[in-house]
Design goal:
The complex is a heterotrimer. By secondary structure, chain A is α/β, with parallel strands linked by helices. Helices cover 35% and strands 24% of the residues of chain A. In chain A, strands 3, 6, 7, 8, 9, 10 and 11 form a seven-stranded mixed beta sheet that branches. Chain A has a four-stranded antiparallel beta sheet with strand order 2-1-4-5, covered by helices on one side. In chain A, β9 (207-212) and β10 (215-216) form a beta hairpin. The longest helix of chain A is centred in the last third of the chain and has 16 residues, at 171-186. The mean pLDDT of chain A is 89. By secondary structure, chain B is of the alpha/beta class. Chain B has two domains: 6-159 and 297-372, 3-Layer(aba) Sandwich (Rossmann fold); 162-291 and 375-410, 3-Layer(aba) Sandwich (Rossmann fold), CATH 3.40.50.2300. In chain B, α5 (161-174) packs parallel to α6 (188-203). Helix content of chain C is 73%, strand content 2%. In chain C, a hairpin with a 4-residue loop joins β1 and β2 (137-139). Chain C is globular. Chain C starts with a helix and ends in a 13-residue tail after the last helix. The model of chain C has no long low-confidence stretch (mean pLDDT 91). The chains are: A alpha/beta, B alpha/beta, C mainly alpha. Chains A and C meet through α2 and β6 of A and α6 and α7 of C.
């Protein structure tokens, strides 16, 4: 399987249908994320955003449709192999391991080419270095979010699937996340971002996909956001 | 054709009337046998903890009794159709209760035998009373079966806790162990045993300085063993009332905590041949206990034990022998009565003398339906003295039945 | 005082079995989310296996201590591959029922071939007799069991906290999906961890053989208490299982000493009290996922 960088690193989702039991959550969803592009999914709670991310990561089995990575079909590939192929997932609750120290959280991922070495992580996130012996959940919410991002950078992911990284954080940490995402974009990594905070989304993203009741709407280019903001807020139910 | 069937119908009807009026007199004729056959139901533990003590061995013993009965009476036998059916209680009282009803109702059992576990036996006794069919208890030791819970159709044939306590408690106390420390499993059987032993020790002039209940079933008894070891004054003997797996756990730990070396020998309330076989005789060497029957006691027992071993591959336990004896006694009574009608058989059994390999010098007491027979004080041989397989016991003393069992007046049974 | 100390030792010895068994249950529950009902049956097979090894092949206690748990561990891993893993995607109840069925099959097989009676097994010559512990003499074998359990529990604890394998298993136990998304092949670890849990059960069984009755039902009585230990320690918590195991052995022994009327129910009284106070157990984490 090609790693993202070599194969162009484009994610393409085609006609994806997924659900739980008899209920369908996602209806024929198609989208793409190019390398170095940040794309947001915007929608109300329960619209199917997290399910879509889990399908892309391989943690939830879609009932129809395909996930393509650099041109090859990865729909049937297991999550840990997708991770090796360049997929990275940052969970909405950050997914920090409580029974692992900060450093163990960073050492756990399988590191492949392009993964950030520990020194670079500590340089970039000095707070984590200070607290590297603490257990994962002894960190503050913001620090945990940093850890979750840092951890996925260790894997050398070429595509980040971020589930509401700014949720519940102080402005200081939101700024830091914006900084990290901008850096990632510069490195040519694609990002599929779930975000409710439109201020934050508009600062970093290239396109916005509204997701309404499991159906993806026409994307809005970031440049058009100012004039179509009301439309987007309507989709969010705000 | 029509005529013939009418004659048969009249004959059948009149025999029913006759049986009803006379209560069954002596004499042959299979017309007085219900359903035209005798069915002996062996309700025993075939998969639980008592399967070695009773189980398939007991079933086989009852089959041997049927064969011996047929061989003895030949064509004079009251009927040639005698079936032995068995059912597994799984050592669960509720299962025993259902199976007993099934045996009486669906399998037309005229008598149910055995039933290990006193709780199970008591529920079967109630079934017997309700069905007005016989139940002869073998494996269950509760005195209640011929005491407070006795009934017209229930007999207790092999032993009870009083007999176990009297034999061992009296003998050990009279031999100088005045001061007892008793451990007993905290359920009906254990509590019964504890009371019986305390009474027997007291009568013999000893005292029980402490009695500790232990969890049932138990894995680790070291706390109790150390308590006994460090008790003040030092006990002369440790009375162990546990049975089966608990007994084996306890004795293994007794040996590793060296209580014998500390001068505290053990006396075991209920021990069976299979218990000794399980741990090996050295684990119990020198221990005295009361046995209702032992296979290697004399030539008569040995001869029967050889026949039993040829069929089952093992030596008979006292439960096997008692099942054999009870089944044979039942069949002989039916033979004499000429009918298997329950009331007649009960009448025939009451006061009957039993003198076979199990019930030496025995009488079935009419007052409480207990078979009073000789019991034995036995001692476990050390492995070095065991000459043949399963030859684990040395009989020290024969305890006459009227000493081993309490007088009928004390039973509290009102039939 | 001496008497009290001796009883403390007794408690720790019976706690050794609780700790080893609960540790195996906790490890299996952690990685699979399955309560392995068959744990008691494997404990029984450990003890029965030692007797069989001695009786049929003349293999003594020491080699049996190595071989029997190993064989059972491999069997456990195989069982996971061919049966447990097939039900893993369904409700955990299915696997609970499966392991319940395995218990019945294993017990009945032993009963079928060797009967319900117990089999003789004694401690090796060098562990018979007593050893002086200063204030009192204590049976050598019982002391050996305590030391062995402490060594095994410490080794497992070290492996869990200090090695990469331990780290991976901890992560896979806590958040399997996150671990997978970080490139860890969680499924690869399930069979070995399951097998390891069974190894621990088998080891406890071999250790029990010289001091307890070796019979087909020996595990079914014990496993209920061990479930209580795991619940007290916190489901899936490795250190919780070990600490609760030793603590419960101790509480039981002292309870038998000072409050014999409570002995029968003490474990469950402690369990109920702990659950009222901390519903996730002493060392358990509250469920964070919705």
């Amino acid at each position: 399987m090609p790693r993202g960088a070599a194969g162009g690193g484009a994610l393409r989702v085609e006609n994806l249908v997924a659900g739980y039991g008899q209920g369908t959550v996602l209806h024929e969803v198609s989208l793409h994320v190019a390398p170095g592009e940040i794309v947001t999914l915007v929608g109300r709670n329960g619209a199917g955003k997290t399910t879509l991310l889990r399908c892309v990561m391989g943690l939830h089995k879609p009932s129809a449709g395909r996930v393509l990575w650099g041109g090859s079909d990865v729909t049937a590939v297991a999550a840990h192999r997708r991770a090796a192929a360049g997929f990275g997932w940052v969970q909405d609750d950050r997914g920090v391991f409580a029974t692992l120290t900060v450093e163990e959280n960073l050492l756990l991922p399988k590191v492949s080419g392009g993964g950030w070495p520990l020194e670079r992580i500590y340089e970039y996130f000095p707070a984590l270095k200070q607290r590297r012996r603490s257990m994962g959940t002894q960190l503050s919410g913001g620090e945990q979010q940093m850890l979750a991002l840092a951890r996925v950078l260790r894997t050398g992911a070429r595509l980040l699937l971020c589930d509401e990284p700014s949720e519940g954080l102080s402005p200081l940490f939101v700024d830091k996340i914006g900084e990290v995402l901008t850096q990632i974009k510069k490195d040519g990594i694609g990002v599929l971002l779930i975000e409710q905070n439109i201020r934050f989304a508009s600062r970093v993203a290239d396109r916005h996909y509204p997701l309404v009741d499991g159906r993806l709407q026409e994307p809005i280019a970031n440049g058009d956001l100012a004039e179509r903001e009301l439309e987007l807020l309507d989709h969010l139910g705000l | 054709m029509k005529k013939v069937s009418r004659v048969v119908a009249v004959a059948a009807a009149s025999s029913v009337v006759l049986a009803g009026c006379s209560g069954g007199g002596p004499g042959g004729g299979s017309g007085k046998i219900s359903d035209g056959k005798i069915v002996l139901g062996v309700l025993t533990d075939e998969s639980g903890p008592y399967a070695e003590l009773a189980g398939k061995g007991a079933v086989e013993a009852v089959k041997m009794a049927v064969e011996d009965y047929k061989a003895q009476y030949g064509s004079k036998a009251v009927t040639q159709k005698i079936d032995v059916v068995d059912a597994d209680t799984q050592n669960k009282p509720d299962v025993a209760n259902t199976k007993a009803a099934e045996l009486y109702d669906r399998q037309q059992a005229d008598v149910v035998l055995d039933v290990p576990n006193s709780a199970a036996a008591l529920s079967v006794a109630t079934q017997a009373k309700n069905h007005k069919k016989l139940y002869i208890d073998i494996s269950a030791a509760s005195t209640a079966l011929h005491g407070a819970s006795c009934n017209k159709y229930t007999f207790q044939y092999a032993y009870d806790t009083r007999m176990l306590a009297y034999g061992t408690g009296t003998a050990v106390t009279k031999n100088g162990a005045k001061n007892w420390y008793i451990v007993y499993p905290d359920y009906a059987f254990g509590q019964d045993m504890q009371k019986s032993f305390t009474a027997a020790v007291g009568t013999a002039g000893g005292t029980v300085q402490a009695h500790d209940p232990t969890p049932f079933p138990g894995q680790d008894f070291s706390t109790y063993l150390l308590k006994a070891k460090s008790a003040s004054p030092k006990p002369d003997v440790l009375g162990i009332m546990q049975a089966g797996g608990d007994l084996q756990n306890l004795v293994k730990q007794y040996n590793s905590f060296k209580l014998a070396d500390a001068g505290i020998p053990m006396a075991v309330g209920l021990m069976t041949l299979t218990d000794i076989h399980s741990l090996g005789p050295d684990a119990f060497a020198g221990v005295e206990f009361t046995d209702p029957w032992y296979w290697n006691f004399d030539a008569t027992n040995r001869a029967w034990a050889d026949k039993f071993q040829a069929r089952t591959g093992k030596r008979p336990t006292f439960v096997d022998a008692a099942n054999y004896s009870a089944a044979l006694q039942y069949l002989k009574t039916v033979q004499t009565a000429g009918t298997d009608a329950s009331d007649s058989v009960v009448k025939g059994l009451e006061g009957a003398k039993v003198d076979d390999l199990f019930g030496r010098g025995g009488t079935i007491r009419a007052a409480d339906h207990l078979l009073v027979h000789d019991a034995y004080l036995a001692k476990v041989k050390p492995a070095a003295q065991v000459s043949t397989d399963w030859d684990y016991e040395q009989i020290v003393q024969t305890i006459p039945g009227d000493q081993a069992f309490a007088p009928a007046a004390e039973s509290g049974c009102k039939l | 005082m001496t008497n009290f100390l001796e009883q403390v030792f007794n408690g720790l010895v019976s706690g050794s079995f609780y700790a080893l068994l609960a540790l195996g249950l906790a490890v299996i529950f952690g990685i699979l989310g399955v309560v392995n009902f068959a744990h008691g049956a494997f404990y029984m097979l450990g003890a029965f296996g030692s007797w069989l090894a001695l009786d049929k092949a003349g293999i003594g206690f020491w080699p049996a201590l190595l071989l029997v748990p190993l064989a059972l561990g491999l069997f456990g891993a195989l069982l996971e591959r061919i049966a447990v893993s097939r039900l893993a995607s369904l409700d955990p109840l299915y696997n609970f029922l499966l392991t319940f069925g395995v218990t019945l099959v294993l017990q009945d097989l032993v009963v079928r071939f060797y009967g319900v009676g117990s089999q003789p097994y004694s401690a090796p010559k060098e562990l018979q007799g007593t050893i002086s512990l200063g204030l009192f003499d204590y049976p050598k074998y019982q002391a050996f069991v305590l030391v062995a359990a402490l060594v095994v529990c410490s080794a497992v604890w070290l492996a869990f906290t200090r090695t990469r394998v331990g780290m991976v298993v901890r992560a896979a136990t806590e958040r399997p999906d996150v671990a997978r998304a970080l490139g860890v092949d969680v499924r690869r670890w399930i069979a070995p961890v399951f097998g390891f849990g069974i190894w621990l059960a088998g080891l406890s069984g071999v250790l029990a053989a010289p001091m307890r009755s070796v019979n087909p039902l020996m595990g079914s009585d014990l496993v209920i208490t061990v479930f209580a230990v795991v619940v007290i320690g916190g489901l899936g918590s490795v250190s919780g299982a070990v600490i609760a195991g030793f603590a419960l052995g101790l509480i039981e022994a002292l309870g038998e000493l000072y409050a014999p009327f409570l002995a029968q129910v003490l474990v469950f009284v402690v369990m109920a009290a702990v659950l009222l106070w901390r519903p996730a157990g002493l060392f358990g984490r509250q469920e964070v996922r919705a």
